[in-house]
Amino acid sequence: MNKYYTPEEISSLVLQMEIIHKHYGNEFMGEIVNVIYQLQDKWIAVSERFPEPEQTVLITISKKYDNDRVIFIDTYNGDNKWNYWSSKYVLAWQPLPEPYKAPTEYK
Fold first, then answer.
1. Helix (H, G, I), strand (E, B) or coil at 8
2. Which domain holds residue 36?
3. Which of 2, 58, 87, 97 lies 20 to 30 Å from 103 when distance is taken between CA atoms?
C-alpha cells in the first residue's frame, strides 16, 4: 500500500507541483497540501472501528495520571481487548508500517 519513490520520481513530482503552482496559484497548492496531510494521517479512532482480531498495530494511549499521549505496539484480541493495554486507555490505532528495505542498486 505504501509507495516508496526513487529520487527521479521525487524530482518529477516536484516539477509537476511547480507547474501546478505556477498555473493555479497558492490557494490551490494549499488545498493539495491539506489533502496530502489528511492522507498521511492514518490513525483510526477506536470509537470508529477496531483492527482485525490478532492484528498487531500501533496504538495511541492516554496515560493514567496525566493527559499525555504515547505510542505503543499492541495486539488486538477482539471483543474490545488488547494484549497489553486496558481498552480504557487506547484512543486510536494504525497499521504497522512496512519494514525497512535497503535501496536496490542498479548496475
1. helix
2. 7-40
3. 58
Give the type of residue at 74. Answer: D
Beta pairing, strands 56-62 & 81-82: unpaired
| Rounded Cα gap, residues 80 and 90, in angstroms | 10
SS3 string, 38-101, reads: HHHCCCEECCCCCCCCCCEEEEEEECCCCCCEEEEEEEEEECCEECCCCHHHEEEEEECCCCCC
22 lies in the same domain as 61: no
Same domain (yes/no): 50, 80: yes
pLDDT in tens, 10-68: 777 777 777 777 777 777 776 766 666 555 567 889 999 999 999 999 998 887 666 67
Rounded to whole angstroms, the Cα distance separating 51 from 3 reads 22
